[in-house]
Amino acid sequence: xxxxxxxxxxxxxxxxxxxxxxxxxxxxxxxxxxxxxxxxxxxxxxxxxxxxxxxxxxxxxxxxxxxxxxxxxxxxxxxxxxxxxxxxxxxxxxxxxxxxxxxxxxxxxxxxxxxxxxxxxxxxxxxxxxxxxxxxxxxxxxxxxxxxxxxxxxxxxxxxxxxxxxxxxxxxxxxxxxxxxxxxxxxxxxxxxxxxxxxxxxxxxxxxxxxxxxxxxxxxxxxxxxxxxxxxxxxxxxxxxxxxxxxxxxxxxxxxxxxxxxxxxxxxxxxxxxxxxxxxxxxxxxxxxxxxxxxxxxxxxxxxxxxxxxxxxxxxxxxxxxxxxxxxxxxxxxxxxxxxxxxxxxxxx
Length: 349
Prior knowledge:
Elements: E1 2-7, E2 16-21, E3 32-35, E4 41-43, E5 46-48, E6 58-61, E7 65-70, H1 72-75, E8 84-88, E9 92-98, H2 169-197, H3 211-215, H4 226-235, H5 240-247, H6 257-272, H7 276-286, H8 301-313, H9 318-335, H10 339-346
Parallel strand pairs: 1-9
Antiparallel strand pairs: 1-2, 2-7, 3-8, 4-5, 6-7, 8-9
C-alpha cells in the first residue's frame, strides 16, 4: 500500500484528504495513525500511548484507491518534519506521506481592526451678551488745582558717530583676502590629488570555495541533536546534495534511533527533489532485506519497490540488484500467506 495526505481545497485550511492505494475492497474506513518520533497514536484528544481508531468525515473506495476526508482534529496535529504510519483493519499498514497541508489556525483568530466608538459631539457653548465697555469719564479738576506743567520739548536725534579708521586698515583687509585665496587653492589641490592622482587601494578578492567545501555539509554543533540538525537543514535552503552529505555519515550499522530518523528526514527530502542516491537510501529504510538500522520507520515493501524503481530510472546501478532481492523476499513472504506481499507481486511490473 501507499498513502498520502494532502490539503482539501474544497473545504479550506484545516481539512485534508488521505488517499491510500492498493487497499482492495475495504468496508470499514476506520484507521489508526501512529507518529514515528515517539510511537504514539492519534485520538480525539491528541497523541496518546494507547491505540485508538479514528473515523473519517467521509470516504469512498473505487476498488483500488481509498479516499478519506479528515478535518482539523487530524490535519492540525501533523508535522511534515515527522514520520507517520497509517493502519487499516484487514488491509495492513503503510507509511503516510505528508504533502502541502494548510492548517486551520493560520486563518482563524480575532480580527485586528476593531472600530472604536465615535466621539460624542461637542456641545455648543451658550451664547452670552457681549459685555458693555464702560468708558470712565475723567473727573473734573478741582478749582484750586495748580496749572498744568508745559509739555517737554521734543528730543532731536543726533547723527551716529563714525568710527575712526585705524592706520593700516586697508592693508590688513587685503592680507586676509590673500590668505583666503591661498587656503582655497590648497584645498583644491588636495581634492585633485584625492580623487584623481591617488591610486585607490583595491579590496582583496574573495577566495573561491574549494571542491571539498562545496560537497561537505555543515556539521552540527556539539550540543545539537541529530534531529535538530536535520530540521535546521530542512528549514533552510535544503539543497539535495547537502542533505545527502549530512545524512550519509548517520547510515551505519551502530546508528541509534534518533540518528536514523534524522537521516531519513534528510534523505526523503533529497529524494523528493530528484537525487538518485537519496532515492536508493530511502528504499533501504523500507526494505526488509536491508540490515541497516531504520529507527522508527516501519518496513514497507511497496515503498521500497517504489523508491528502488525511481533510483533505477535515474541511473543508480545498485537499484536493479536491490529490486531483485526485494522481489525474491516478497515471493517467500507470499508463500507464507502474507497478503501485502501477494498484492505487491500481483502489481509488480
